[in-house]
Amino acid sequence: DTGVSQNPRHKITKRGQNVTFRCDPISEHNRLYWYRQTLGQGPEFLTYFQNEAQLEKSRLLSDRFSAERPKGSFSTLEIQRTEQGDSAMYLCASRREGYGYTFGSGTRLTVV
Amino acid sequence: DQQVKQNSPSLSVQEGRISILNCDYTNSMFDYFLWYKKYPAEGPTFLISISSIKDKNEDGRFTVFLNKSAKHLSLHIVPSQPGDSAVYFCAALPHQAGTALIFGKGTTLSVSS
Q1: pLDDT digits (tens, 9 = 90+) for A11-38
Q2: Nearest to B45 by CA among B105, B93, B88
Q3: Residues from chain A contacting residue B32 (CB–CB below 8 Å)
Q4: Band of pLDDT at residue A60, cut at 50, 70 and 90
Q5: Nearest residue on chain A to B5, judged by CA atoms?
Q6: CA distances for A18 relative to A80, A94, B38, B53, angstroms
Q7: Nearest chain B Cα to A92, which residue?
Q8: Tens digits of pLDDT across chain B (113 residues)
Q9: DSSP for A47-85?
Q10: What is the spatial distance between Cα B102 and Cα B91, in angstroms, rounded to a whole number?
Q11: Do B42 and A41 touch (CB under 8 A)?
Q12: Distance between the two ends of chain B, CA-based, in angstroms?
């Protein structure tokens, strides 16, 4: 069990650029979640996959955001035309049914 | 609107004393509650959980109490240690399968030696 891995750990980008983050879950976990955390807030749910199927998206996931989980393994979260309000920590978590959520260390995005 | 509320942004406690962190919720469909601890630049780490069919769960220095009628839970840490200094998040899970955790805003605990 190597835990949930997220890359990169930090990303600084100019407003208007596209960014992509990667999450590698624990291998036997079939469920994968993306959260966003801003300063002074708790993690806020963005989207959820069961295997390769994206089953739920929150209203926070605007049309500039897209997430994929090809083959039910790793997942990517892409933000197009980044805005300063996208600056946050993006957290990935995985779990299998009946077990707790394991979070990665997150990707801290700064949009300048 | 916040379904999980942690009304105290911060708490300071002396080493060896009890730390009590509180959490309120509004959704009666929540049936599982969890506490996570978070250090800067790291993801949240699971600490302890409680099912809605119980009113207490204990794990070493950590005890979680659930009062369903008041929609309130609390995390007790006894004795508190400087290494416990972190942000603590309360999270709740509705009973629908696959639904994501809903977090409170967190309480920053500082334990001084």
Answers
A1: 999 999 999 999 999 998 999 999 999 9
A2: B88
A3: none
A4: confident
A5: A42
A6: 4, 25, 28, 46
A7: B43
A8: 789 999 999 999 999 999 999 999 998 889 899 999 999 888 999 999 999 999 999 999 999 999 999 999 999 999 999 999 999 999 999 876 567 899 999 999 999 99
A9: EEEETTEEEEE-TT--TTEEEE-GGGS-EEEEESS--GG
A10: 5
A11: no
A12: 38
Q: How far is A32 from chain B (nearest CA, A)?
A: 10
Kindly list the residues from chain B whose CB atom is less than 8 angstroms away from the CB atom of residue A103.
36, 43-45
Task: Answer whether B64's CB lies under 8 Å from B50's CB.
Answer: yes
Give SS3 for B83: helix
User: How far is it, in rounded angstroms, from Cα B7 to Cα A109?
Assistant: 27
By C-alpha distance, the chain B residue nearest A95 is: B98
Q: What span, in angstroms and rounded, lies between the C-alpha atoms of A22 and A37?
A: 16
What SS3 class is residue B84?
helix
